[in-house]
Amino acid sequence: MSRTFVGWPKFPEAAAAATRNGQLRANVRRATETIRGKRELLAAERPDWDDLRDSATAIKDEVLAHLDTYLLQVEEKVTAAGGTVHWARDAAEANRIVTVLAQETGAREVVKVKSMLTEEIGLDNALEAAGIRARETDLAAAIVQLGDDLPSHVVVPALHRNRSEIRDIFVREMGRHGRPAPEGLSDDPPQLAEAARLHLREKFLTADVAVSGANFLVAETGTLVVVESEGNGRMCLTLCDTLISVVGIEKVVPTWRDLEVFLQLLARNATGERMAPYTTTFTGVTPGDGPQAFHLVLVDNGRTHALADPVGRQALRCIRCGACMNVCPVYERTGGHAYGSVYPGPIGAILNPLLKGANDPQTASLPYASSLCGACNEVCPVRIRFTDVLLELRHQVAEEGTVVKQPAEKAALRLIGTVMARPAVWNAAVRAAGKAGAVVPKRRLPGPLGGWTDSRRVPELPHESFRAWWKRTNGGTK
């Protein structure tokens, strides 16, 4: 079975371990600085850059406001074009649908186009449990899979690996899963690319079933759009007899004219390119050309839960460009694995709690995985206000009685609530607090309060409350 994030430690523990890994920090910093620099140059050359962002934001908000209508239009158009639409409310249902479809073909191995959603639902493990091998064909995703690793970035899943580590993975693992790495393989990038090309081409030419996601889903024609850099997606989408596309319900855009806006934004933000090398569009089934069976699996898996959140729903605008990660000071120091999800960085800090709810023990810490510097707000092509959503999610975790609170925190909040509900008791506590200033530690608070002072100074406690000062200086007048 492939590794998963199930049982992963909470962000504070995972981040503490990651920041002690000097090689990891160096790998992540080098990669994010490179992509960030290229993006800045290409964004600056477009005088209409902010207009494009405004248009993309408006289009996404229109889709989210009428999502039910657009999804029914997608179903109608895909069906009319010879495809079959399946609806999945959660990961288990989506995995079951895809597994049954693959089994019906008799396939023992399927090839995959990189898809964050199939990682989110754990599709590879579901297929493997049914005796079907799923082979990643995107280079970075293949590196992660061969190394029994986990993705750390939405665009470059193996961003945390350097080329020497990749060479070692190829030499050690390729032969176990197909064509072995060439003798004497070095860590020279062209040699590594050629080794991957030879290994993967064997998969393309023998597989009967391909599984993909989609970057966009055009409602007016039922067309799916896959944007990629290597051509592996084009191979999967054209050579196999059966194509199964697993797509989140938020990926819809209304028209082809709307798609144009996003194609101008995506590559510049994701990889620092004016245009992605491969943009593949496909609609249903064409006799004698490409896959002769097409299945579209539309997946919710918490998206309607996020849609119901008036502040958080803007996270569903996300086009998975990764720009927020490349500017985030927290992500740069911790890498992606610390977030415990296929969605790391600022988008992971808001999307995971929105999809799973504030009661999830693993994701409840993610809204705090941010310095609230706002750099992610500034680069997001669809103008997600990350800091607004982070603050709202922190409010939900702290104030709404979620089950993830520590027992000591729950007890403290109950006590404070009891005291504040009784004015006489509260006033006595305020007076006592002024006298306690002399005995409160100035460097580190004791016990479970110590974590608060790891990065903060204990403020000076005033000798008297504001009310007492006002009464003394103003003679009790209002």
Number of helices: 21
Main sheet record: 6 strands, parallel
* Spatial ordering of strands, largest sheet: 1-10-7-4-2-3
CATH architecture of the largest domain: 3-Layer(aba) Sandwich
Q: Give the tally of β-strands.
A: 10
The helicity comes to 40-55%
Give the rounded overall mean pLDDT.
91
Write down the Rg.
26 Å
- Uncertain regions: pLDDT < 50 for 5+ in a row? none
Global shape: globular
User: What separation lies between the terminal Cα atoms?
Assistant: 70 Å
Percentage beta strand: 5-15%
Classification by helices and strands? alpha/beta
How many separate domains?
3
Can you tell me the CATH superfamily of the largest domain? NagB/RpiA/CoA transferase-like
| CATH fold naming of the largest domain | Rossmann fold
Output the CATH class name of the largest domain: Alpha Beta
Organism: Yinghuangia aomiensis
Protein name: LutB/LldF family L-lactate oxidation iron-sulfur protein
Keywords: 4Fe-4S, Electron transport, Iron, Iron-sulfur, Metal-binding, Repeat, Transport
Pfam family, one: LutB_C
Structure description:
Keywords: 4Fe-4S, Electron transport, Iron, Iron-sulfur, Metal-binding, Repeat, Transport. Residues 308-338 form the 4Fe-4S ferredoxin-type domain. This is LutB/LldF family L-lactate oxidation iron-sulfur protein. It holds the Pfam family LutB_C. It comes from Yinghuangia aomiensis. With 478 residues, the protein is α/β, with parallel strands linked by helices. It folds into three domains: 11-294, NagB/RpiA/CoA transferase-like (Rossmann fold), CATH 3.40.50.10420; 304-399, Fumarate Reductase Iron-sulfur Protein, Chain B, domain 2, CATH 1.10.1060; 407-474, no CATH class. It has helices at 11-18, 22-44, 49-65, 67-80, 91-105, 116-121, 123-129, 139-146, 163-173, 189-206, 232-239, 256-270, 303-307, 323-327, 329-334, 345-356, 375-379, 386-399, 407-420, 423-436, 466-474; strands at residues 84-88, 109-112, 133-136, 209-212, 216-218, 223-228, 242-248, 252-253, 278-282, 293-299. A six-stranded parallel β-sheet has the order 1-10-7-4-2-3, with helices on both faces. A hairpin with a 4-residue loop joins strand 5 (216-218) and strand 6. Helix 3 (49-65) crosses helix 12. The longest helix is centred in the N-terminal third of the chain and has 23 residues, at 22-44.
